[in-house]
Amino acid sequence: MIDVLYFAWVREGVGKGQERVDPPAEVVTVADLIDWLGYDVLADKAKLRAAIDQVFVPLDSKLGAAREVAIFPPVTGG
Question: Whole-prediction pTM value?
Answer without folding.
Answer: 0.92
